[in-house]
């Protein structure tokens, strides 16, 4: 490495200018689950050494683009040449470890077809630093990676969350070419990568908790002034909803367009631009309006689950009750739209890859919105908790309508004290990993023997929890309310001493009387009146 390169400020976080930068495409379990695919072996792409920058630098979002995304990564710097090295000896060839940020412009990704030459090769697109950690002083499995955007932590994972161990990248690459001193391997990013806009400040740190650290690698985003890309020379930036979904790292709710989820670009032109006041989670997963109209929600709150069950049965839907769950708050009504989470049976290797870091369970509780219900598939297994008080607090703070799990609840008293409606199959003191692996979210699941899809209407009371397909909910609730009025009238007649034969259900004579009396009642009956007890108390003296 020449002296000029050593003193170039862009490479101050490295021993010198690297000859090669090799980046891993997909390496963390959390990111693979987010993308819906898991590689059987590592795959790679090259980045230009001219893309390297140091801590405190700026990165330009190119003119005419919208999807500049960060990727916090652990960077390995080769210390001694490696060629055909075994997995067991590969780590000995790593000289240093540090933090990196593998920025990319998703607007340019499609023409690259996986090479990432244009999408990730821009000047300043590979910040590395701030300081080097001697690889000989750390256990590679103990390394932790964290990323912040405007002071908000958005990535927090460890090397234990990797699909492949760090040393495997060194051994694998050495089969194909010589890794030379100073070469850099960018080892991939976990879930949490998302879009940033001009004015944002991104920080990445690699450390061993309680041990050595790279310090924070700081990069500020600015708006590129141009010139715009010339169409006569090559492919132009282009985005579609799939690119936006990948860039933001989120999946839109059913029926919603992704484009509505992206933040509008702000015209910042320098490092002094103010950061976007919204948090990254607010920008990438904006607070959704309650998809249940207020009037419909009020009707659902007024009608008992038993009445809804009867109407669904009339429509041929018998398998719509979530069985085996009981409420921690029997006095509270549960009404909301389903967001789903699935656990699979615990297997030690799968828990090692999926249980740590920003796993599916944490992502589901962070993503739940106002008026939504987290429904958890735990296979009826109550031998450990599927949530505790911290996650219940998070859901409550997000405005969630409630939580339903056919598994256990840990810290049951503390969860109850949070106040959010929770239905569970029971309490258990053990942690998640005893029986479950958090696997995936926002998909069709089985909870309490019933299929539940994201967006289904969930209603719960003392009798239990029912699932209503959203396409028929208006019809079902209106019919249930009408039936409740009729049943209340029948109950009053029985309390007066009439026999149930011919009255329950009403024959033609009784129905004619009911309809005549109903037509003379007040044309409007409040939902609060409907929700009060309709059937007279048979213990009342007036009904004896």
TrEMBL record:
Entries under CDD domains matching the protein: RraA_family (cd16841)
Superkingdom assignment: Bacteria
SUPFAM superfamilies named among the record's database cross-references: FAH (SSF56529), RraA-like (SSF89562)
Keyword DNA-binding found: no
UniProt entry keywords in alphabetical sequence: Hydrolase, Metal-binding
Record-annotated Fumarylacetoacetase-like C-terminal domain positions: 21-222
Disordered, as annotated region: 232-292, 511-544
UniProt xrefs under PANTHER family: ACYLPYRUVASE, FUMARYLACETOACETATE HYDROLASE FAMILY PROTEIN (AFU_ORTHOLOGUE AFUA_1G02370)-RELATED
Stated name of the protein: Fumarylacetoacetate hydrolase family protein
Organism: Microbacterium fluvii
Species lineage: Bacteria, Bacillati, Actinomycetota, Actinomycetes, Micrococcales
